[in-house]
Amino acid sequence: MVTTPAISVDALLKRYPRVTALDGISLDIPTGCIYGLVGPNGAGKSTLIKCLVGALRPTGGSIRVLSIDPTEDRWRLRRRIGYMPQEIALYDDLTVRQNVRFFGSAHMRHGLDDAVDRVLAFVALTDRADAAIHTLSGGMRQRVSLAAALVHPLDVAILDEPTSGVDPELRRAFWDGFRRLRDGGATVIVSTHQMSEVVECDRVAILDHGRIVVEETPADLIARGARRVRIRRRDGTVEEVPVGDYRQELPGILGVDVEAIELVQEPLEDVVLRLIGGSR
Ligand code: ADP
Fold first, then answer.
1. Mean pLDDT of 182-195
2. Which ranges of the chain would DSSP assign to H, the alpha helix?
3. For residues 175 and 84, what is the distance between their CA atoms, to the nearest angstrom?
4. Would the CB of 42 count as within 6 Å of ligand 1?
5. Does the predicted TM-score (pTM) go above 0.85?
């Protein structure tokens, strides 16, 4: 069965007078996955996201999100997606609950109070629900912003660096939450400049200078990494030998005086950085 991708982007171009922010991006994002847009600062992640939600008009190419052209029909699309921009846009004098309620009320009426309670629990802000936004730390505001994006029922969540500046414990809770959203059938697009978050995604596009350097699963990315076998001999010496297909190569490498071996895999972050380096 062929299913329509949640998002289809073809030859997307966004030029500013001095910079080409998106230089011919094409990708299909399948329905019901967590899709990472990964790349260093300035790679084009936010520009791509803004084009996806209809906040920015591309210079060329085409986009379909849930079969809707965001440039033409932004408000019809907004009802079906949750968007967390990188720049936090909240009402400073309103409380956390009032802000989230306000954003939710644009999309839903029935069950709004329950939805607000649920999403505040998700971002661990239940006990600050009645605090005014201007009294919160930057990290907390970011959590309110995420809550505002996710409060209503949605088919696609598009989140611009939702975990930056978030402590490790809450970051883990966020990724658990993104997985729950996905398991409920939603498509979750998350941008990040933290290479370590690649493994949390089902599929990633690595961006650099407005182009896709590579687009695949984290497992395929890991498989691109160099591997070495660390061998400790009986005389106490340790050596590291690069291997390709270690199952074939091991017998020749090992010899008879082996005390212990360990397979050393190049860290995923190093693989990604090497790929980005190679695109320059
Ligand atoms: P990322 O989100 O990956 O950090 P951005 O999409 O914000 O990257 O930016 C991509 C490139 O486009 C950068 O070189 C940035 O300076 C440039 N850019 C973004 N917005 C504008 C703008 N409004 N005017 C001019 N250049 C811009």
1. 94
2. 45-52, 74-78, 96-105, 112-122, 138-150, 168-183, 218-223, 246-254, 268-278
3. 15
4. yes
5. yes
